[in-house]
Amino acid sequence: MTDQPHGADPDRPGTPDMLGKPTSASRTTLSHIMTLNDTNLLGTVHGGVIMKLVDDAAGAVAGRHSGGPAVTASMDEMVFLEPVRVGDLVHVQAQVNWTGRTSMEVGVRVLAERWNESTPPTHVGSAYLVFAAVDQDGKTRPVPPVIPETERDKRRCQEAQIRRTHRLSRRQAIMELRERRVAEGFAD
């Protein structure tokens, strides 16, 4: 696939001379063995530990894709499918699914396997995070578009656009509700 100028897509206005990057250019996997220090009161790995690994991997991908600092703007969804245990080798796989003008959605898949066994890893969680690329002053900056390389990448990009539409719609509905409540005399 060839690089495409950033402004080539009418739905993504931006810097016309910014070239796109393929999905594989920033895809990464972070692996970590879970220890007793990672456990919750039930003796399994604390969800917050997994969430930190998810944010770390997603942040690395966002920084790679955008070519500089990127900050977590939101975690759209975090789903825990199976518990993670002490001694599990956790693999956190992340890639950019979609890009806007200054933001990007990073999809994360969490797998776990026993550190000393050769069984296939189990899918234990998934997450979607939105990152904003920032400059040294903390102001947003443009990001290159992501160029999906496979049918799976294309599907993930389309799903990310649906999640973005829902985020924006939800935000608008909440703002309208708050404005109505203030107009009716209710304080926050």
Topology record:
Blueprint: E1 21-22, E2 28-33, H1 47-66, E3 70-80, E4 88-99, E5 103-114, E6 122-133, E7 146-147, H2 151-183
Parallel strand pairs: 1-7
Antiparallel strand pairs: 2-4, 3-6, 4-5, 5-6
Mean pLDDT value: 91
β content, as a range?
25-35%
Given helix and strand content, the structural type is alpha+beta
Strands of the widest sheet, in order across it, are 2-4-5-6-3
Q: Which radius of gyration do the C-alpha atoms yield?
A: 19 Å
Overall strand count: 7
User: Helical region count?
Assistant: 2
Largest sheet: 5 strands, antiparallel
Percent in helix: 25-40%
End-to-end gap:
51 Å
Uncertain runs: 1-16
So what's the overall shape? globular
Question: How would you characterize this protein structure?
Answer:
28% of the residues lie in helices and 30% in strands. It has 188 residues and is of the alpha+beta class. Mean pLDDT is 91; it is low at 1-16.
Brief digest:
With 188 residues, the protein is of the alpha+beta class.
State the main characteristics:
single chain; 188 residues; alpha+beta; 5-stranded antiparallel β-sheet; two-stranded parallel ribbon; globular; disordered N terminus
